[in-house]
Design a protein that fits this description.
The chain has 485 residues and is mainly α. The protein has helices at 11-68, 71-81, 84-115, 120-142, 144-148, 152-176, 180-184, 187-201, 214-221, 225-248, 251-288, 290-326, 335-360, 364-414, 425-428, 431-439, 447-464, 470-473, 478-483. The longest helix has 58 residues, at 11-68.
């Protein structure tokens, strides 16, 4: 049996659970490194300069998303669903297309920075960050087989290395007294390292010769253009909030939103890491076995909803300590902003499951419509509320956008297919745990203590009420593992 055949066996589910735990574990370590680095950078730059830095990051990310056209996710799905020489041709065409589109994106990012009236450092930083993004795109494309074959140890190691190296570079730049240009240029050396590591891991698996065949590109894009639009718009609207806040609010408010937004983006990456691990299985099940797809989607829905509840608790109860650590007392105004975005995070976790399920089912038009509506609602709300209420208003725009997107995705996966309707009961069972956890915030104790206590209470009540999926229990050590049966 080959490595790829595992997608058709029960072992795939076990690898997804183990791989998900491994990736989240590595991601948590990476988050720790990122938080330490952010604590240095935010204090070093101050609210105004940090707002400028975070705005450039958001701008480059938006342009990257638009020009990427969702090709990373497409690569995972198509590699899982193709075989033999067809896979090799696909990777070569994908690499050539992504290179060409990313170069266009880098140029557009620099041009957009000029058009928006950014200063010289912001324009130069956008260009340098774009170079690093281009190198990273090559690494991500040739690394598609690692994710599609569920080689999560290698994927986790690369992700962790990228986060730790970025954090170390940031700390070094703070020590050197760097401005925003240096921090934006960090993507270049880090992406070079990631590319070298990925090349070593896939040296005998994929061709490194990109195909610059316009006809082949058209053949790839033509049937997947709605897929590309769906993933691009879906990722773009979250980052748009930072750019729009910079336009209508003052630098201080943009800096406050940037500090909270940084925390939000880090935590919001967790469900993407988890569901991306399962995406090859979802893709194969969508092609061959709808009952298996419904089962996998339900279990992912339950798991991400539980983690979303923990994220909500952590941000609502612990917003003060988190901002103190990540940014410092100068950013105290970001505390209520993070609490609002913490509520949005609970929706973000579930959205990841339903979004990847829609991609696996090839329901791209539903995704395009859902994300376009969410983008419009979020953008209009951010422009209106950020202008009047600053960073907190922008946070409510993010929350409203996530709510609209969650409802639209749910309609998309259930339309015309009763088997895909999620069972809400397992999530309803988690509500007592969430309420009791939030109630800990009423105790006359320091915020850090109530946050830890709230999370402990949340986890304990989940275990007692059997709200945790059995597949997770099976991989826990000792008595907890035996409870799963």
């Amino acid at each position: 049996m080959t490595d790829l055949d595992v997608l058709d066996t029960p072992e795939a589910g076990r690898r997804v659970v183990r791989g998900g735990v491994l990736r989240v574990g590595a991601f948590v370590i990476g988050i720790g490194a990122s938080v330490v680095a952010a604590a240095f950078v935010t204090r070093h730059l101050g609210t105004s300069d940090y707002g400028r830095y975070q705005t450039v990051v958001a701008l480059v990310t938006i342009v990257q998303i638009v020009t990427d056209l969702g090709m990373t996710t497409l690569g995972l799905r198509e590699y899982a669903q193709r075989r033999g020489a067809d896979r090799d041709r696909f990777i070569r065409v994908l690499l050539g297309l992504r290179l060409a589109m990313t170069v266009v994106g880098v140029t557009l990012a620099a041009a957009a920075a000029v058009a928006l009236g950014y200063d010289g450092d912001m324009v130069l930083g956008a260009a340098l960050m774009g170079v690093g993004v281009t190198i990273g795109v090559v690494a991500g494309t040739i690394g598609v087989p690692l994710g599609a074959e569920l080689r999560m140890g290698a994927v986790s190691g690369i992700d962790l290395s990228r986060q730790v190296l970025t954090a170390l570079a940031f700390v070094a730049l703070v020590a050197l007294g760097s401005g925003i240009v240096g921090f934006l240029a960090v993507t270049i050396p880090v992406s070079v390292f990631v590319l070298a590591a990925t090349l070593y891991l896939v040296r005998d698996r994929v061709s490194l010769r990109p195909s610059f065949d316009a006809r082949a590109w058209a053949g790839l894009l033509r049937p997947t253009i709605t897929f590309a639009l769906a993933t691009a718009v879906g990722s773009m609207y979250v980052y748009a909030a930072q750019v729009l806040t910079q336009l209508v609010a003052d630098d201080h408010e943009a800096g406050l939103f940037g500090a909270s937004f940084r925390v939000y983006i880090i935590v919001a990456s967790v469900p993407g890491v988890l569901v991306t691990t399962a995406f090859p299985v979802l893709s194969r099940a969508a092609r061959d076995d709808r009952a298996r797809l419904a089962y996998a989607t339900q279990r992912l829905f339950e798991g991400t909803a539980l983690l979303g509840g923990a994220a909500l608790l952590g941000c609502v109860l612990g917003a003060g300590p988190i901002i103190d650590v990540v940014a410092g007392p100068e950013y105290a105004g970001a505390v209520p902003v993070l609490r609002v975005q913490g509520v949005a995070l609970a929706l973000t976790f579930v959205i990841s499951t339903w979004g990847f399920t829609l991609l696996a089912m090839h329901r791209h038009r539903a995704m395009v419509l859902a994300n376009t509506v969410a983008l419009g609602v979020s953008a209009a709300t951010v422009l209106l509320l950020a202008n009047a209420h600053g960073a907190r208003g922008a946070a409510f725009g993010t929350l409203l956008g996530e709510g609209v997107l969650a409802m639209s995705y749910l309609i998309g996966i259930t339309r015309g297919d009763r088997t895909m309707r999620p069972d809400p009961w397992p999530v309803v069972r988690m509500l007592p745990a969430l309420v009791l956890g939030l109630a800990c915030g009423l105790l006359p104790l320091p915020a850090l203590v109530t946050t830890i206590l709230g999370l402990v209470v949340y986890g304990a009540v989940l275990v007692v009420t059997r709200a945790v999926p059995d597949e997770v229990y099976e991989h826990l050590p000792g008595p907890l593992g035996r409870r799963g049966g």
